[in-house]
């Protein structure tokens, strides 16, 4: 299978799809939990760390978020940080911020220069996405535009449209994570991944969630998915696999090729 030659450079780290960049989630509810969790994660040397801000209980106190970010950045060292606030409908936690306040917080975090990527959902108002595109670009931060569906796997055509929308926003990469009813749905995701990787100018991150979809986390990179998410300390989504298991599978695939 021919792979595209797309590359994404994050903090000097080149993500080129020849192996999946493995991202571990950070989901502590307070600073003490974050630091304890992060020490476990950093020891495993992932390619990326995703701080899921929606788990942080003081998300509405900007000073506490900033202080936590500085400590996270210090411990993470050269590992790039992806920052995400996921809503309940996107599989996240209840948060004390409306969309305006969330975008304000994202903007302030981007301006610190302490994060390398931001994830923002495609269904949000275009003015918010366009604002974040402008701010991330001016601070050399990558913008991932995402689509999540925890109920079903939409048809191939619908996933294709999501990818095109993200590219129209000039995102640096597009992510979709959807729930399969059966293995046919997993095949839809893999086909969409391969088609979008061939068609779009931007890289693709694609996940079929849950037990059936776990193979997309292991093999999706061969179809064009640049990043996969594993378990470092705690899982943040259904179907995530422990990092060492994932590395073993990827190593076997690369050896067989």
Automatic annotation (TrEMBL):
Transport listed as a keyword: no
Catalytic activity from the UniProt record: 3-dehydroquinate = 3-dehydroshikimate + H2O
Domain of life: Bacteria
InterPro entries: Aldolase_TIM, DHquinase_I, Type-I_3-dehydroquinase
Pfam families, per database record: DHquinase_I
Enzyme class: lyase
Pathway the protein takes part in: Metabolic intermediate biosynthesis; chorismate biosynthesis; chorismate from D-erythrose 4-phosphate and phosphoenolpyruvate: step 3/7
Active site: 148, 175
Binding site for 3-dehydroquinate: 50-52, 86, 217, 236, 240
SUPFAM superfamilies: Aldolase
Gene Ontology molecular-function annotations: 3-dehydroquinate dehydratase activity
Keywords noted in UniProt: Amino-acid biosynthesis, Aromatic amino acid biosynthesis, Lyase, Schiff base
EC annotation from Swiss-Prot or TrEMBL: 4.2.1.10
Function per UniProt: Involved in the third step of the chorismate pathway, which leads to the biosynthesis of aromatic amino acids. Catalyzes the cis-dehydration of 3-dehydroquinate (DHQ) and introduces the first double bond of the aromatic ring to yield 3-dehydroshikimate.
Subunit structure: Homodimer.
UniProt record similarity statement: Belongs to the type-I 3-dehydroquinase family.
Official protein name in the record: 3-dehydroquinate dehydratase
Species, as recorded: Halobacillus naozhouensis
Protein encoded by which gene: aroD
């Amino acid at each position: 299978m021919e792979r595209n030659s797309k590359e994404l450079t994050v903090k000097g780290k080149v993500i080129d799809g020849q192996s999946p960049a493995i991202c571990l989630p950070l989901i502590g509810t307070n600073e003490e939990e974050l630091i304890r969790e992060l020490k476990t994660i950093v020891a495993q040397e992932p390619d990326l760390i995703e701080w899921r801000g929606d788990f942080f209980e003081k998300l509405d106190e900007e000073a506490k978020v900033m202080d936590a970010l500085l400590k996270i950045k210090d411990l993470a060292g050269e590992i790039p940080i992806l920052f995400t606030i996921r809503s309940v409908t996107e599989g996240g936690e209840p948060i004390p911020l409306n969309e305006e306040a969330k975008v304000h917080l994202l903007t302030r975090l981007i301006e610190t220069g302490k994060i390398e990527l931001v994830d923002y959902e495609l269904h949000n108002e275009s003015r918010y996405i366009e604002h974040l595109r402008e701010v991330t670009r001016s601070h050399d931060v990558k913008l991932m535009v995402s689509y999540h569906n925890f109920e079903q796997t939409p048809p191939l055509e619908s996933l294709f449209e999501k990818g095109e929308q993200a590219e129209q926003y000039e995102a640096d990469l597009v992510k979709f994570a959807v729930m399969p009813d059966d293995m046919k749905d997993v095949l839809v995701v893999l086909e969409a991944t391969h088609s979008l990787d061939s068609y779009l100018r931007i890289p693709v991150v694609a996940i079929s969630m849950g037990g059936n979809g776990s193979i997309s986390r292991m093999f999706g990179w061969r179809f064009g998915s640049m990043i996969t998410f594993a378990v470092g300390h705690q899982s943040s989504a259904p179907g995530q696999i422990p990092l060492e298991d994932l590395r073993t599978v990827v190593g076997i695939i690369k050896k067989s090729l």
